[in-house]
Design goal:
seven-stranded parallel β-sheet; 256 residues; binds NADP nicotinamide-adenine-dinucleotide phosphate; Rossmann fold; 8 helices; alpha/beta
């Protein structure tokens, strides 16, 4: 048999759940996982957007869920376990950011809102889906962190965003080690700046855009397709000996 190093990247027969699939990274990830052979379950709050995307992807399913509401997450997982027996790949991608502000001016309510989406929801969904993965002895989780889980966000001041993404990096390591002997791998992806709804205010502001370019050794923001390889690597058997890691896709931002 000739060597086929690309075969390990295929996801034929696997079911992949992507949170935050109604826009930005999540929509792109859903397309990439589908192209690699997976059946994709699309999750976010804006159901009409998910349904439109599901219409373009063979075998995809759209399910509305606010991942920050534990009752909705519980109902989602119950449905997934009943109808699919769980999922093979979980991409915890849904995320929010705090409005830029000096930390001392940020309210606890705003901080907590971001913690609920970016951190608590990742813990909640991962831990609800893990038992079925452990029972099968197989599962993969990819948590979308950020370079601001590794280095400060300021002067783009977003304390809750940075704190939650740092926590996602740490949670990724902890879950990876807890579940390593049970066949479940957990890794994180840490992108720098890519233009999406989340970052639109920065990309629309000339000085913010220049700040991104100035701080990126490759001299430009990322393009969505430049996450494809990293996502697929972490979601597939191509990364079978990788767990607890954070894969940085940042044009060199954190290398300085
Ligand atoms: N863009 C970047 O430069 C960048 C860099 C590093 C990391 N990231 C991370 O990448 C992830 C995706 O962000 P993006 O840039 O693609 O932004 P985006 O286009 O704004 O996407 C965010 C997604 O999260 C979903 N979401 C937000 N709150 C939710 C909730 N409570 N329940 C369910 N879904 C929720 C949104 O869907 P609904 O509104 O329909 O619920 C949307 O699909 C985030 O975790 C973000 O922190 C982004």
């Amino acid at each position: 048999m000739p060597l086929d190093p690309l075969a390990a990247f295929r996801l034929d027969g696997r079911t992949a759940l992507v949170t935050g699939a109604s826009s930005g990274f999540g929509e792109r990830f859903a397309r990439v996982l589908t192209a690699a052979g997976a059946r994709v379950i699309l999750v976010a709050r804006r159901l009409e957007r998910l349904e439109r995307l599901a219409g373009e992807l063979p075998d995809a399913r759209a399910l509305a869920c606010d991942v920050a509401v534990p009752e909705q997450v519980a109902a989602l997982v119950t449905a997934l376990l009943e109808e699919h027996g769980g999922v093979d790949v979980l991409v915890n991608n849904a995320g929010a950011s705090d409005a830029p502000a000096r930390a001392e001016s940020e309210t606890l309510g705003e901080f907590a809102r971001v913690v609920d989406v970016n951190l608590n929801a990742v813990f909640d969904l991962s831990c609800r889906l893990a038992p079925a993965m452990i029972q099968r002895g197989r599962g993969v989780m990819v948590n979308v962190a950020s370079i601001h889980g590794l280095v400060a966000s300021a002067p783009n001041r977003q304390a809750a965003y940075a704190a939650t993404k740092g926590a996602v990096v740490a949670l990724t390591k902890e879950l990876a080690v807890q579940w390593a002997r049970k066949g479940v791998r957990v890794n994180a992806l840490a992108p720098a700046y890519f233009e999406t709804e989340l970052t639109a205010p920065m990309f629309e502001d000339e000085s913010s855009r220049e700040w991104i370019v100035r701080n990126t050794p490759l001299g430009r923001p990322g393009e969505l397709h430049e996450l494809d390889g990293a996502l697929l690597f972490l979601a597939s058997d191509a990364s079978s000996y990788v767990t607890g890691s954070t894969l940085v896709v940042d044009g060199g931002w954190t290398a300085r």
